[in-house]
Amino acid sequence: MKPDKQNGVAIIMVLLIVALATSLAAFMATQQNMWQRQVESQLDRAQARRIGIAAIDWARAILADDARTSTIDDDKEMWATRLPAMPVENGEVTGAIEDRQGLFNLNNLVRNGTTSAPDVAQFQRLLGMLGLPLELATALADWMDADSETQYPGGAENTYYLALPRPYRTANRPLTEIGELSLVKGFDSKTIERLRPFVAVLPLNGAVNVNFAPPEVLSAVVGNLSLADARLMVQQRSMQPFKDVADFTQRMPHGGTQVVAGSITVSSQFFMATGRATVGRAQVTTQALLQRLGGWPTVVWQSVE
Prior knowledge:
five-stranded antiparallel β-sheet, about 300 residues, two-stranded parallel sheet, Pantoate--beta-alanine Ligase, Chain: A,domain 2
């Protein structure tokens, strides 16, 4: 081979090696940047998660302090005020505490494994106001009660569920979360979303806090309270919360009351605490259902998204 040709080949080889090395360096730099961003994202998310959990502890402390100073729960108390965005390192955090006892507890339908007729009647009144089939109450009671006797109209036990294309059995226990309703006869996604603002799933049977109950829930729980009168009472309590059950009944329009003993209260023991933390590019929402029995609230369940 002539010298000029040899030099040309050598130059081409050098250029190829340089191009290959450049491409390899660029690839490695890109991979390193991606790895670094992933590490940073994971660190940001871990920090946001810790901050979100700290917000839940903040809520527990606020509720514990409230229990030492008051036996009445209403929306004028400090714990009911949403925590504004507060700066943290490389981000911010917000928090909120919401009462859950102003809603109708679906688990009240069954008490000690047996269907509670007064609670079923209350739930049916709520269903009627929301334009939903009354049979949903008996279907849900059958889902949770301990027996295998189908209630009518609208009930369903194992015979119904085992005949479905994808068979399963009734739970025969209280609900653990509202999404479980999708397994119960008649509860489709639209029905569940219609119910969601008015119902809760709490681990203990309990009374409805009339200082937080929506008008529909008030009217459902108090037998002779019309929806219009319930709305009037909600307007009144926005200026002056009810101080006890007697105060509630005395302020009812037209007088008189049909309240099942132990079905209403002015205090709460269940609350939903939410902490939202943003750190860098990471955003984490932490939620917890808290139960307060006079002292430091316990966590019933907690989720991080």
